[in-house]
Amino acid sequence: MTEQELHDLLSALNLYASFFLFFIVVCFIAFITILVILINNIKKRKLLKENRTFISEIIQTQEEERKRISQELHDTVSQNIKTLLIEQKRFLSEINGTNAHFPNNDAAAPDKSAIEKVEKIISLEKQNQKELRAIIQNLSIPLLDSVPFKTVIHDLCEQFSEQSGLPCTFFVEQNAALEDFTNEQKHHILRIIQEALNNVRAYQLSPNLTTNYNQF
Asked: CA 163, CA 131: separation in Å to the nearest integer?
């Protein structure tokens, strides 16, 4: 082997060695990059899971607090309004009874303005009772495990119509798999519908309300 051939061989070996070293460096950098990406993805997934768990716990706590407040309103304020209405009606009956027993006695006859005021108070109390009943129903969520979700939404629309006097209907596609939602998702959907219905009732946005569910 001549000196020139030996020189050419060493040059080729150096070239291959440099290329191989460069290839190893590139592979190492790629490996480190992929490893960092995987670690970040694992951290993000773990953080996302923790966030979902935390949000789920918050929602569960909120629902329990709503249920507790709803029960307390029913057991205290609602019962007090019922008692107050009974007493007011009894008082009004006594006034009207006095008027019936003494039709020609102006001294014994009650003041008509007093009767009108009592009737107005009774009317306001009935309205308060109606609004309180609506608040209690909005705070409470029906049992989703024992009742079909479609029926729950239908009942919600019917309750809204009874309380507000506004017609409300619910339409759903026949192939819509409402029962595939988790209970947490069902709670979210019901809260969204309740909030929309409350806005309609508060601002009288539409005389006719339709709730549609379309599956995409």
From this structure: 8
Give the separation between CA 126 and CA 124, rounded to whole angstroms: 5
- The closest of 143, 140, 170 to 157, measured between CA atoms, is 170
pLDDT single digits (tens) 34-75: 999 999 999 898 888 888 788 778 877 877 787 788 788 878
Q: Which residues contact 78 (CB under 8 A, 6 or more apart)?
A: 129, 132, 133, 136
Q: Which two tokens stand for residue 168?
A: 């409300």
Q: Give the SS3 label for residue 173.
A: coil
Amino acid letter, 81? I
**Which residues neighbour 161 within 8 Å (Cβ) at sequence distance 6 or greater?**
167, 168
Instruction: Estimate the share of the chain in helix, then strand, then coil, as percent rounded to the nearest 5.
Output: 75, 5, 20
CA distance 178 to 186: 9
Query: Are the C-beta atoms of residues 63 and 141 closer than 8 Å to each other?
Result: yes
**pTM, full prediction:** 0.48
Confidence of residue 101 (pLDDT cuts 50, 70, 90): very low
pLDDT per residue over 3-39, tens digit each?
A: 766 666 777 778 778 888 888 889 989 999 999 999 9
3-state secondary structure of 185: helix
